[in-house]
Design brief:
It is a single chain. This protein is an alpha+beta fold. It has 3 domains: 96 residues, no CATH class; 78 residues, Roll (SH3 type barrels), CATH 2.30.30.60; 97 residues, Alpha-Beta Plaits (2-Layer Sandwich), CATH 3.30.70.100. 51% of the residues lie in helices and 18% in strands. The protein has 9 helices and 8 strands. The strands form 2 sheets. A 5-stranded antiparallel beta sheet has the order 4-3-2-1-5. Strand 7 and strand 8 form a beta hairpin. Helix 2 packs antiparallel against helix 3 and helix 7 runs antiparallel to helix 8. The longest helix is centred in the N-terminal third of the chain and has 31 residues. It is elongated, with a radius of gyration of 31 Å. The chain starts with a helix and ends in a 6-residue tail after the last helix.
Length: 303
């Protein structure tokens, strides 16, 4: 051992004090790594829920890194006796040398403190939207939705976004707050159709497909109102009427869960197609040309 110490001193210029600090630092890091591995092994053995395992893995990583920085810092920094002193020196140095990583670190702290989103939430930040599948010190990860895929379904791509983006980009959370989305389905029928009957059919279909959501949504609104200024006078589905160039537009507005928007549209459209097929006086409208003939239509001939 003495020979190895002398060799280090001759070849690398490390005096005995530096060698001791280096050895102790390596031992500290090794012990923390082994403790973390042991904790994760025990958690994997006794915990079956994947979400809880994930939280154990992330929390143990943060604790191990934090303890490692503090313990190794006490070894190498002379006169280091308080956590506040060390953190002050560390933050000042990082702020000068590493602007972007420091912003990402601040973003991570903001995410943990304010919780604008959590793992499993569906969010949109800037032009990127997806489900949050991981949260790290410098970045968070989304499983992308939308883009070239219709509606809000997954593309399969994983997007890594720096935490600092929470300070510079607009952030929308699909699942926090109200926890439901308002979705609209426009249905265009001809002017000759019985629009009142069509409207009744559409409202009946919307009520059937969203009946289970109304009561739940009322509870969610009451909960959200405790934290946000969210108020809805009407949560039941409604059908709005409007006139377009090609016909009468009936727009179904209804509540749906964020991850089931496409599925709800699919079910509602199939019901619409079945019900309209039974009605001879309701037809879908589309851009067409029409020629008027007053004689055959029984109208007075213009002079």
């Amino acid at each position: 051992m003495n020979n190895f110490s002398e060799w280090l001193g001759e070849t690398m210029g490390l005096n005995p004090m530096l060698q001791n600090k280096l050895l102790i630092s390596i031992l500290v890091i090794l012990v923390l790594w082994l403790l973390r591995r042991l904790i994760l092994r025990l958690a994997a053995k006794h915990i079956e829920d994947v979400r809880i395992r994930y939280q154990w893995r992330k929390t143990s990583s943060y604790v191990a890194v934090g303890l490692g920085i503090l313990l190794v810092g006490r070894i190498w920094i002379e006169g280091f006796q308080s956590i506040a002193t060390f953190l002050g020196l560390l933050s000042a140095g990082l702020a000068i040398a590493l602007k972007d990583p420091v912003m990402n670190l601040a973003g991570w702290a903001f995410i943990l403190w304010r919780r604008p989103f959590e793992v499993e939430d569906r969010i949109q930040i800037g032009e990127h939207a997806g489900d949050v599948i991981d949260l790290r010190i410098f970045e968070f990860t989304l499983l992308e939705i939308g883009n070239w895929v219709a509606a809000d379904q997954s593309t399969g791509r994983v997007i890594h976004i720096p935490n600092g983006k929470v300070f510079t980009e607009v952030l929308a959370n699909y699942t926090k707050g109200f926890q439901y989305l308002w979705n609209e389905i426009p249905v265009l029928i001809t002017f000759e159709s019985d629009w009142e009957k069509a409207k009744t059919i559409l409202l009946k279909i919307a009520n059937k497909r969203t009946e289970h959501l109304t009561e739940s949504a009322k509870k969610k609104v009451r909960e959200a109102a405790k934290k946000f200024l969210i108020f809805y006078a009407k949560l039941a589905p409604i059908v709005y009427t409007n006139v377009k160039d090609s016909g009468i537009m009936l727009t179904i507005r209804y509540l749906c869960e964020p991850r089931r928007r496409r599925g709800s549209e699919h079910a509602i459209w199939e019901d619409i197609l079945r019900e309209f097929a039974k009605s001879e006086n309701i037809d879908f409208a589309y851009p067409t040309q029409r020629f008027y003939n007053n004689a055959t239509e029984g109208k007075a001939k213009f002079k």
